[in-house]
């Protein structure tokens, strides 16, 4: 297809997570990328990756949001469920290397400043501590004593 980068695979996986029910906005893509464990450090790299994905017909810009095309869904389909994010990124990148677009699509006009605004918005939401459904739930403390009670263990007598 074209020289693939980790950022391209991370973008497809983040779009897969963020755009399950409706087209995802840039802020939702940023949150999904952070959830995957690949936070966005360079807005210019992610902007370039988004432009590449749109021009190769992998992502559709749909009314202010982004969704995967059927071709991109076939690229990310069938990933192992128990694989960690690094392994998934590797597998998607490998599949992207074999992908051949049917025809080039229109270019996306997205400014790097828009992506930086999405990064700032996500950072401000993260500082507020509100409920972000894409963020993992905190684990309960292990120092709490185990619960006692409930059923008694088998005493040896048979019940009939």
Would you write up a description of this structure?
- α1 crosses α3 (43-55).
- The longest helix is centred in the C-terminal third of the chain and has 17 residues, at 112-128.
- The chain has helices at residues 6-18, 26-36, 43-55, 70-76, 85-98, 112-128; strands spanning 59-62, 65-68.
- It has 6 helices and 2 strands; from the N terminus they run αααββααα.
- The termini are far apart.
- The model has no long low-confidence stretch (mean pLDDT 79).
- Strands 1-2 form a two-stranded antiparallel sheet.
- The chain has a single domain, classed as Arc Repressor Mutant, subunit A (Orthogonal Bundle), CATH 1.10.10.
- A hairpin with a 2-residue loop joins β1 and β2 (65-68).
- With 160 residues, the chain is mainly alpha-helical.
Provide a quick synopsis of the model.
The protein is 47% helix and 5% strand.
What class, by secondary structure content? mainly alpha
Number of extended strands: 2
Could you give the distance between the termini? 69 Å
Low-confidence sequence ranges: none
Mean pLDDT metric:
79
Structural shape:
elongated
Region (Disordered): 119-160
Secondary-structure map:
Layout: H1 6-18, H2 26-36, H3 43-55, E1 59-62, E2 65-68, H4 70-76, H5 85-98, H6 112-128
Antiparallel strand pairs: 1-2
Helix pairs in contact: 1-2, 1-3, 1-5, 2-6, 3-6
Characteristics of this structure?
single chain, 160 residues, mainly alpha, Arc Repressor Mutant, subunit A, two-stranded antiparallel ribbon, 6 helices, 2 strands
């Amino acid at each position: 297809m074209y020289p693939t980068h980790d950022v391209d695979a991370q973008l497809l996986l983040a779009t897969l997570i963020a755009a399950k029910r409706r087209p995802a906005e840039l802020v939702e893509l940023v949150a999904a990328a952070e959830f995957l464990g690949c936070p966005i450090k360079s807005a210019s790299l992610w902007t370039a990756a988004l432009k590449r994905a749109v021009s190769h017909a992998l992502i559709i810009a749909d009314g202010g949001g982004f969704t995967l095309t059927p071709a991109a869904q076939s690229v990310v389909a069938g990933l192992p469920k128990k694989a960690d994010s690094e392994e998934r990124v590797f597998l998607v990148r490998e599949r992207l290397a074999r992908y051949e677009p049917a025809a080039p699509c229109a270019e996306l006009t997205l400014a790097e400043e828009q992506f930086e605004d999405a990064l700032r918005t996500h950072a401000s939401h993260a500082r507020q501590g509100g409920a972000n459904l894409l963020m993992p739930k905190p684990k309960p403390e292990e120092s709490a004593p185990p619960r006692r009670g409930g059923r008694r263990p088998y005493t040896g007598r048979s019940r009939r």
